[in-house]
Amino acid sequence: GKDDEKTWTPMTKLGRLVKDGKIKSLEEIYLFSLPIKECEIIDFFIGSSLKDEVLKIMPVQKQTRAGQRTRFKAFVAVGDHGGHVGLGVKCSKEVATAIRGAITLAKLSVIPIRRGY
Fold this sequence. Notes:
Layout: H1 13-19, H2 26-31, H3 39-46, E1 51-64, E2 67-80, E3 84-92, H4 95-108, E4 111-112
Antiparallel strand pairs: 1-2, 2-3, 3-4
């Protein structure tokens, strides 16, 4: 999304249910293993407590006739410190866009984890 800082218009049925307040928590989504296709759904529930960490940025090269095409691959982990983690991997021409894209993908891949016994 470009300018969706304040206004989020859901694209999926799950997104509409979340925005209307029909779904109370992420656990309800995980219970029925529904695919989360919008990162705003994660922001809606745990956005305030979400921390992201860039694990690694590595240059990858593609050989072309004219030489090498260098792109940057970013690995980002996100999680609230309460049993939800996600990992995102994104490759892009610039480091900043790779990180931004990886954060979005990491939010989409957030899963609940069981801690302790």
